[in-house]
């Protein structure tokens, strides 16, 4: 499902140059991802305990357009899409809210569903599949 998440950049997000450390863009995107799952009714603690699965990120890519600094207000827009019965991608766009609003980054992550015991790929469980397909 298309989803937006608003956030303020905190001092802890930044590096010595005063801008968001590159890896923290992924952290911010992951926050949006978790909030999206919660908004769709998925209780993360129960979900993963009940299904004995893990959904690691298998690939990530990022294009940084402009720096973000402490105090900046931003919006993360995200869109999941099914890649196969056991994997999906999420495309994120991070926008620094204005005026004027400006895109700060585009991030893409690929997730694969695996059995937590065997580490073999497994089909996305119903609630996660529904969340991806609603996108």
Please characterize this protein's 3D structure.
The chain is α+β, with helices and mostly antiparallel strands and 135 residues long. It has one domain (3-133): Thiol Ester Dehydrase, Chain A. It is built from 3 helices and 7 strands; from the N terminus they run E-H-H-E-E-E-E-E-E-H. The strands form 2 sheets. Strands 1-4-5-6-3 form a 5-stranded antiparallel sheet. A two-stranded antiparallel ribbon has the order 2-7. The N and C termini lie close together (3 Å). The mean pLDDT is 94.
Return the CATH class. Answer: Alpha Beta
Across the major sheet, the strand order is 1-4-5-6-3
Strand-residue fraction?
35-45%
* First-last Cα distance: 3 Å
The low-confidence runs, each spanning 5 or more residues with pLDDT under 50, are: none
The helix tally amounts to: 3
Number of domains: 1
Please provide the ordered H/E string of secondary-structure elements: EHHEEEEEEH
Gyration radius, to the nearest Å? Answer: 16 Å
Shape: elongated
What structural class do you assign from the helix and strand content? alpha+beta
Mean pLDDT: 94
- Please name the fourth-level CATH homologous superfamily: Hotdog Thioesterase
Fold-level CATH name: Thiol Ester Dehydrase, Chain A
Number of strands: 7
CATH architecture: Roll
Helix content: 25-40%
How would the blueprint of this fold be written?
Elements: E1 3-8, H1 22-39, H2 44-51, E2 53-54, E3 57-64, E4 73-84, E5 87-96, E6 102-112, E7 114-115, H3 126-133
Question: In summary, what is this structure?
Answer:
This protein is of the alpha+beta class and 135 residues long. The protein has helices at residues 22-39, 44-51, 126-133; strands at 3-8, 53-54, 57-64, 73-84, 87-96, 102-112, 114-115. The protein has one domain (3-133): Hotdog Thioesterase (Thiol Ester Dehydrase, Chain A, Roll).
